[in-house]
Design brief:
Blueprint (H helix, E strand, L loop, with lengths): L2 H28 L6 H46 L6 H38 L15 H18 L3 E8 L2 H8 L1 H18 L5 E6 L2 E7 L3 H18 L4 E7 L6 H17 L5 E4 L4 E3 L15
Parallel strand pairs: 4-5
Antiparallel strand pairs: 1-3, 1-4, 2-3, 5-6
């Protein structure tokens, strides 16, 4: 078995291990029930990670093989030049060095890109592990979300690839706990998490940010796309449950940190709450604005939090 085959097998093994880790954790949380539709979706996600890692490994192998042939040719030419005794040898050597420099620099860029792609897939694998999974809802926890934000900012700095963030907060969740108890409140959180995870793309990272707040990191998504996603999820939740949810959306800019991105999304969420809840506001980087001129909001009782 050559080195490329070993790399491919190793990456697929990582995906399998991540999948098994997720399923074991999920069964613990569900009391050993049969694998649900959501579990099967997670298996597909893990398979997608394995396939992407395999593609990266094959690309690296092709690039290294191509460069290896160039190096062999370069070494042969240098060896031939070493046997010559005329004054033009150094000029020919400079020409040969120039010819090998271009593919070497190209390989460096290709390897750097592959490294960043692998880092991205590692983040997806990490989302399956127990330490990065919210114990109640089974989706990503605060740690996984912070790592995803940091990774996306690193990719943006290197490749100018943007991303957006949406933060959601269940409206009047305290009333749910007070009226029906915390066990029911936990079931509500689980159901919201399931709907959010199903609504997000496989390349997105959806997680519980804390309490009744959820956050979605959306790679290669502009502010408009993130706004559409947030509003669709708001409507979906309202149609399928007795709940409403408010959301704040923003996109990353140069100089951002994970905290600054979330702070802008949170500022937009605060405005959505203040404007009557059950709506989406976005932070453009300069101002906070509603994504619609008007958004429906349920009637609020006096004194309701």
């Amino acid at each position: 078995m050559d080195s490329s085959s070993i790399s491919i097998v190793a990456t697929l093994a990582l995906a399998v291990m991540a999948t098994l880790g997720y399923l074991v954790g999920h069964r613990r949380r569900t009391g050993g029930d049969a694998v649900t539709l959501r579990s099967r979706r997670e298996v597909r996600r893990a398979q997608g990670v394995g396939e992407e890692l395999e593609r990266i490994a094959q690309t690296i192998h092709r690039n290294l093989s191509r460069h290896g042939r160039s190096l062999s040719k370069f070494k042969q030419r240098v060896g031939e030049l070493g046997t010559r005794q005329h004054g033009a040898t150094w000029r020919e050597l400079c020409r040969e060095a120039g010819e090998i420099l271009t593919p070497t620099l190209r390989l460096t860029t290709q390897l750097a890109g592959a490294y960043d792609q692998i880092r991205q897939q590692i983040n997806h694998l990490m989302s399956f592990t127990e330490v990065r999974t919210d114990a109640l809802t089974g989706i990503a926890n605060r740690r996984a979300l912070d790592e995803s934000l940091a990774s996306q900012l690193a990719l943006m700095s290197r490749y100018q690839t943007g991303f957006s963030v949406a933060i959601f907060d269940i409206d009047h969740f305290k009333d749910v706990n007070d009226a029906q108890g915390h066990l029911h409140g936990d079931r509500v959180l689980q159901h919201v998490a399931e709907l959010l995870d199903d609504s997000a793309r496989e390349t997105d990272v959806a997680g519980r940010y804390g309490g009744e707040e959820f956050l979605v990191v959306m790679p290669r998504t502009d502010l408009e796309g993130a706004s559409i996603f947030a509003d669709r999820f708001r409507l979906k939740l309202q149609e399928q449950t007795a709940l409403t949810i408010s959301a704040g959306v923003t996109f990353a800019v140069d100089g951002d940190t994970p905290d600054s991105v979330v702070a802008r999304a949170d500022a937009a969420l605060y405005r959505a709450k203040a404007a009557g809840r059950n709506r989406v506001f976005r932070h453009t980087g300069e101002q906070v604005e509603p994504i619609h001129e008007e958004a429906p909001a349920p009637a609020e009782e006096a004194g309701s939090p």
